[in-house]
Design goal:
By secondary structure, the chain is an alpha/beta fold. The protein is about 45% helix and about 15% strand. It is built from seven helices and five strands, in the order E-H-E-H-H-H-H-E-H-E-E-H. A five-stranded mixed β-sheet has the order 2-1-3-5-4, with helices on both faces. Strand 4 and strand 5 form a beta hairpin. The chain is elongated.
Length: about 220
Amino acid sequence: MSINSLESKPLKGLRVGLICETLDDGVDKAVVSSILGAASHLEELGCTVTKVSLPSFSLGLPAYYILASSESSSNLSRYDGVRYGTQVAADQLNSLYGDSLSKGFGPEVKMRILMGTYALSTGYYDANDKHAQQVRTLVQKSFKAALNENDIIISHHLQLIVLLNILHFLVNNQLLAIFTGEMKNDPLAMYARGHYDSEKLLKVGHIFEQTLQGYKFIPPL
């Protein structure tokens, strides 16, 4: 489907913010070209695209690991073989707790529990978990400010997919991945993020993909 087959400027009036921090040095030129091309296509559809800066963008990763580990430590302690989880036979109660927790979790979960226990321990809470919560609030405020000025904000997903998913955990708003092309047979996509308005995001994604030159929908197996 071409743009000419739709109503004139079907997304006219939609304000789109492009996150500057996702275009920094070190990002593959093809990826940058893809998201800039997607921004140009949105402008063809009637959107007003402007660059937005989110200085707290890079702070999301360390804050996430502290908060997620702290939650793991506090929430998974109940899987002690008595209340929840796999129970291991033992003569002593402490051995039952310890062996059940040890054999019930894999190495990654154990590492997160240990990190979380350290972050929440006396003398370290203010320096770790409390600061991470403050960073989360800062990240939430920066995204909220950007979305007050724009209907949606966009960024590419390649090389940043882990960080962007982590930011979604911290910010907790609507997120949609939209196909933009391919690079070396790998799909490229942009992330569109907005307030709690699924209908608007889905409309943008549908119109964008249906009017994208060379777009082919391959149904899942």
